Amino acid sequence: MTIAILYFLIINLIGLTLMGIDKRRAIRGAWRISEASLFTAALLGGALGCILGMNCFRHKTRHWYFKYGMPAIFFVQVLIGVLLFRRFF
């Protein structure tokens, strides 16, 4: 259980950091992090971090697929987590 919690903390921190880095690069006009990479981080468990990064850095908030996709991914992850928790505890 401790390993799972540590994993989700790290992957959410990565998602938050990726959003911040991509926002900074967007402002500077530099090479950007692909949207596929941002969604991959979310799908690997970092959806909450990506959502926090979107709101904190005001990044990707106008794109409907981020605006609705990230919360949808997070909802599914929470649902899976609740189902697994109920099954094993």
Structure description:
The chain contains four helices and no strands. By secondary structure, the chain is an all-alpha fold. The termini are close together. The model has no long low-confidence stretch (mean pLDDT 95).
Summarize the structure.
The protein has one domain. The protein has 4 helices and no strands. It has helices spanning 2-28, 35-57, 64-67, 69-88.
Secondary-structure element pattern, one letter each: HHHH
Low-confidence parts = none
Q: Round the mean pLDDT to the nearest integer and report it.
A: 95
Question: Roughly what fraction of the amino acids lie in strands?
Answer: under 5%
- Give the beta-strand count: 0
Q: Can you summarize the main beta sheet?
A: none
Number of helices: 4
Q: Quick one: overall form?
A: elongated
Instruction: Name the structural class.
Output: mainly alpha
Q: How many angstroms does the end-to-end distance come to?
A: 11 Å
Number of domains: 1
Helix content: over 70%
Rg over C-alpha atoms, rounded to the nearest angstrom: 14 Å
